[in-house]
Write a structure and sequence with these properties.
The complex is a heterodimer. Chain A is an alpha/beta fold. In chain A, about 35% of the residues lie in helices and about 25% in strands. Chain A has 13 helices and 14 strands. In chain A, strands 5-4-6-7-1-8-13-12-11 form a 9-stranded mixed beta sheet, sandwiched between helices. A 3-stranded mixed beta sheet of chain A has the order 3-2-14. In chain A, strands 9-10 form a two-stranded antiparallel ribbon. The radius of gyration of chain A is 19 Å and the shape is globular. The relative contact order of chain A is 0.19. Chain B is about 40% helix and about 20% strand. Chain B has 14 helices and 11 strands. In chain B, the strands form 2 sheets. A 9-stranded mixed beta sheet of chain B has the order 3-2-4-7-1-8-11-10-9, with helices on both faces. In chain B, strands 5-6 form a two-stranded antiparallel ribbon. In chain B, strand 5 (about 195-200) and strand 6 (about 200) form a beta hairpin. The chains are: A alpha/beta, B alpha/beta.
Chain lengths: ~350, ~375
């Protein structure tokens, strides 16, 4: 049975803050940060935007591209995030209700640092493949947190991507060719219960965590599928900053051309669970029939999921049916000063 | 006093060795040195380590490490003099053999620095400054060495480019050392354009945070002859140590490293040598300015001529007196407690003629200079082939 994506959609908030604006507040060396991390600006969620609302927007965009999937035929919906609005009470129920998928469906919220998003994709495609459900939705969304003044504050951003998986051949816009995951116990980044901001092992998050897992997963994926970098039209890697995904792509043997479409982080920031999935939506927005696409996520803790997709003829029919990712990224931006940003991110201590 | 020979060397690769613990690093270097010497028992173990407590939460280190290689029972002592701990461990082992208290000593140095993040590593290193006169006021080592650099520039006209050329030279040497943390070609421009750390010092003027260990086996010259197996016998001809005020505020002259000068004079006197006799040197280039000041304090160049000497290539491999052929702390890396021992490992390797592409031709007399903090202590050893 061929299983694939029948609808996809992204959501990026309109608000942005420039790296210089953050650096100015902390007396940091903005040119050095820009050079070191290749970050220029990042998205910021508005007062009425959170993981749930962004997931709803992305799921609605996915439905718009689904060729008329009846929401009540959705048998499973999963949201991966590390910023679920509630510690106890699911995000998935609210989203399922909002898109009209209730009540006969299975719902779960997932968490695995930045790779929770691709976990939902893995589960959704697997359930469809097993014949358990007709359609399954996987969503990666985050309003990620970075402590004031920490290096993470320059990257922690907001956004969501949603994918509907199904097995009806006439609806599939990108087939799932194969998947592969690579996981170890590598504690490079964490947030305990009741902690407001995550902590990280600074340089330990690089080589032993991001690079080792991402490279191993992508290599394992290509080996398993019998493919090489030159076989792909596009490759998307988790993008905690601008620098890492390009470095990992080059090390694996991909070219700028293969990497640049899904490389959004310099202007979007790190949307954590949304990061590589949103990059994937930007690729689908311009992909051509027959294109092979490699998607490789990374989540601290640590693990990396890889997927190979083959784009079908249906892609050109759906690309214009919902707002494209690059349009959301590049247009209608509202730039914030640090004060407004601090207010929206809940960094200001209010009267009790 | 008995003559003391070095019959075994060993060291780990230096770098961010995430998967290797302090005790594993140490055991690797220690066993390599014992193997290189061809001995399986020693009378004493000395360990140079600056701050295993703050970096890894382990004190009582000597017993832990002796046990790690199955030598529980053997006397073992950890010595500490900040970044000069390794040099002091060499001197402690040398003294025991020279005095006849021990015939064979395993001398080691180790530091595991990457189990903590940058802020905690900076704090741990900062405890080597004067806590009341410097630490409490927020001064860290880049700041202290930046002040020394400023004074040196003002006093002697040492230039920003001369500092950069120290980094260029040491990184070029490090390219030839497989144990080095960085295999990175550096240019004057890339040093001058690197991130400003403490004016005038930039990122590429600073040695890195490093994990690593190094080890030596010391014994009597008589036993060394039995074990040499045709290899050149390297002896420690001179050992000198000196202290200075830790706080820079209490020094009379910030353009000179007094502890280095005194330690050097004592080592030269014991060895019956002068600066002009030295064929190569490993000096403590924790910052580029430190190498220039050390080469002056050791008498290789007159005060104020350390900078111009770098310009003229006098300290290059193949120069008048090659300095830091290993790549130095700058390129090889600076696991603080291991550094002083690793410097002696390099000199022995050179004097044995085993340094490969970075071999200093005809080297028969070498000097290793290790330094604590911003010059609050220094240890100098002079080694010769006999």
């Amino acid at each position: 049975m061929t299983v694939g994506i029948v609808g996809y959609g992204a959501f990026i908030p309109r608000r942005r803050i420039k790296l210089e604006e953050i650096a100015k507040v902390w007396g940091a060396d903005a040119p050095a940060y820009k050079r070191g991390l290749q970050l220029y600006e990042k998205s910021v969620p508005g007062a009425d935007e959170d993981t749930v609302t962004m997931s709803v927007e992305a799921a609605r965009n996915a439905l718009a591209r689904s060729g008329g999937v009846d929401p009540t035929d959705i048998g499973a919906l999963y949201i991966g995030s590390e910023s679920h609005p509630y510690a106890v009470k699911p995000s998935g129920t609210i989203v399922s209700e909002a898109i009209g998928a209730v009540p006969a469906l299975h719902v779960a919220d997932l968490e695995f640092a930045c790779k929770a998003g691709t976990e939902t994709l893995f589960l959704a495609q697997a359930l469809v493949k097993a014949g358990e459900v007709k359609y399954a939705v996987g969503i990666g969304a985050d309003t990620s947190q970075g402590a004031p003044g920490d290096a993470l504050e320059y990257s922690a951003a907001a956004g969501a991507a949603a994918f509907i998986f199904g097995a009806d051949g006439d609806k599939i816009l990108a087939e799932v060719v194969d998947t592969y995951s690579w996981t170890t116990d590598t504690p490079d980044f964490w947030r305990r219960e009741y902690m407001h901001y995550p902590r990280h092992g600074s340089r330990f998050t690089g080589e032993p965590a991001y690079f080792r897992h991402t490279m191993s997963s992508a290599r394992g994926m290509m080996e398993k599928a019998g493919l090489e970098p030159k076989d792909f039209a596009h490759a998307i890697f988790h993008q905690p900053n601008g620098k890492f995904p390009m470095r990992v792509g080059k090390k694996l043997g991909f070219t700028d051309q293969q990497l640049e479409t899904g490389w959004l982080s310099p202007w979007l920031g790190n949307t954590y669970s949304g990061a590589s999935p949103i990059g994937f939506t930007a690729v689908l927005d311009i992909a051509s029939p027959g294109d092979l696409v490699l998607l490789t996520s990374f989540g601290s803790g640590a693990g990396s999921d890889s997927f190979v997709f083959r784009v079908t003829d249906r892609i050109s029919e759906v690309q214009d049916l919902a707002p494209k990712t690059r349009v959301q990224l590049d247009e209608n931006k509202i730039y914030l000063e640090y004060g407004a940003y601090a207010k929206l991110r809940g960094k200001i201590r209010m009267a009790e | 006093m008995r003559d003391v020979a070095i019959i075994g060397t060993g060291m780990t690769s230096f770098g961010e060795l995430w998967e290797t613990s302090l005790r594993s690093l140490w055991a690797e270097a220690a066993l390599a040195a014992l193997g290189n010497a061809g001995v399986d028992s020693v009378d004493l173990i000395t360990i140079g380590c600056m701050s295993s407590g703050l970096f890894t939460g382990q004190e009582h280190l000597a017993s832990v490490l002796a046990d790690e290689i199955g030598m529980a029972g053997v006397p073992a002592a950890r010595v500490e003099s900040a970044c000069a701990s390794g040099g002091l461990a060499v001197r402690a082992g040398f003294a025991e053999v020279a005095a006849g208290l021990a015939d064979t000593v395993l001398v080691t140095g180790v530091e595991k620095m990457t189990d903590v993040d940058g802020a905690d590593a900076t704090y741990a290193l900062g405890t080597a400054a004067d806590s009341e006169w410097e630490g409490f006021h927020g001064v860290t080592f880049p700041g202290l060495y930046a002040m020394l650099a400023r004074v040196h520039m003002q006093t002697y006209g040492t230039t920003r480019e001369q500092l950069a050329r120290v980094a260029v030279k040491n990184h070029a040497n490090g390219l030839l050392n497989r144990h080095a943390q960085f295999h990175l070609k550096v240019t004057v421009d890339s040093v001058l354009e690197s991130t400003l750390v403490a004016d005038p010092l930039r990122l590429l003027d600073c040695s890195p945070v490093t994990d690593g260990a190094a080890a030596l086996v010391l014994t009597t010259v008589e036993r060394a002859r039995e074990l040499a197996g045709g290899r050149p016998i390297v002896v420690i001809k001179g050992s000198g140590m000196a202290t200075d005020t830790v706080s820079l505020a209490n020094r009379s002259n910030l353009a000179e490293l007094e502890a280095v000068r005194l330690a050097g004079e004592r080592a030269y006197a014991m060895a019956g040598r002068t600066a002009g006799d030295i064929h190569l040197a490993e000096v403590h280039d924790c910052f580029t300015i430190a190498e220039i000041m050390a080469t002056e304090a050791l008498g290789f160049f007159e005060p104020g001529f350390g900078g111009p000497a770098v310009d003229k290539g006098l300290t290059d491999l193949g120069g008048k007196i090659p300095v830091n052929p290993s790549g130095g702390l700058k390129s090889k890396g600076h696991p603080v407690g291991a550094t002083g021992v690793a410097q002696v490992v390099e000199i022995v390797t050179q004097l044995r003629g085993e340094a490969g592409q970075r071999q200093v031709e005809g080297a028969r007399i070498g000097l290793a200079q290790n330094m604590g903090g911003s010059g609050g202590s220094s240890v100098v050893h002079i080694l010769e082939v006999v």
